[in-house]
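Pasting two entries for a bug report.
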Amino acid sequence: MTEMTLDEVLESLWQRWTRGKADRNSPLHTPVVGTVDASGKPKQRVMVLREVNRTERRMRFHTDIRSAKVDQIGDAAPVSVIGYDPSAKIQLRLSGTARIEQDSETADKAWAASALSSRRCYLANPGPGTAVDAPMSGLTAEQELVVPSQDESEAARPAFAVLLIDVTTVEWLYLAASGHRRARFDWDGAAWRGTWLIP
């Protein structure tokens, strides 16, 4: 990789996240989202990246309102997201403030655009994280085999929510045998301020 300017790095990392959202085969399509629980313990999970809005510095993921991360995030909580593209040897990290929305225009639009096969996940009963005696999805045997109809899927809407992240810091790390390169960008309220860092 030829040496890049900070502006080029910033442009590149947003392009990578945007492509990651659109390309199911991209390793950035399913980054790791980190939160902290009430006892201060870190919690991480792989999530599907549903939207990247560079102008608003926002990322969107979908979640079940019954999941533990919903309580961890609430209306405003610090979160982190990390993804790694092994073919490019680039790690992308970001942090910001997240919130959960269930009854909002954003959530309604996200639900309307969701595939029926994706909606099926929210039909699980009991909800995510519930202890059970044997391995199970929470879906009935029939639900596991058949994609629900539009009408059938609407029963899952009360469990659906969006996780929105307002991004305030992004980091880029390029791994190279000859010497790594690292940059960080912080949002100052009006623009991104970048700096090179020793990896």
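Entry 2 (this is the one that rendered wrong in the viewer):
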Amino acid sequence: MSKLVLSAKKREISGSISARNIRKAGRIPAVIYGRTVESLPIDLDAKEFSSSVKNITKSTIVTVDIDGQFYDAFVKDTQYDIRDGNVLHVDFYVVEKDVTMRAKVHLLVQGNPIGVRDGGTLELPLHEIEVECLPKDLPERIVVDISGLKANQSIHVRDIILDENVKLISSGEQVVALVKFAKADASATEEEASDQTAAIADKK
């Protein structure tokens, strides 16, 4: 589980005017809630959250310290200002440490495939998978090594090795990465062009 701790304060007043004043003070209005936790309006330090969010994925569990009371939670949703990119609002969802949960985990692809070095083209159609486990066993990201991938080969979800306490929910047939052999396609195109030229010559 992540050790990232975000400090927060309870908000006594809600509404758009209050939210604007909070942002002017260098803080971000937010709300934290969960299956067993009533929705609670809070606010966070804008600089602290903005620097921390760079390392947060959909499956990162953070600790929210609200005036000395600690909650383990996901960053469920983050709203941004389309004009300047500043964070406008954050939703946190509290997790229960002894309750199995489902979550989507980011796939981090690493390596330079053999097939690409041989002239192939790499395609990455899938960027996350869904798993089921206890919060303490939830990975923030899953690393997939594609360096050994040759031309016309692919890696599927079923090829990913997960911890024994993590159950795969996504279909194992989904393709994570594949290398298409561009040279083969080019050769086929050249051969087709040669056939067409020969056919025109025969007609003459």
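Dev reply: Rendering is fixed now. As a check, the viewer should reflect this: Residues 16 and 165 are 44 Å apart (CA to CA).
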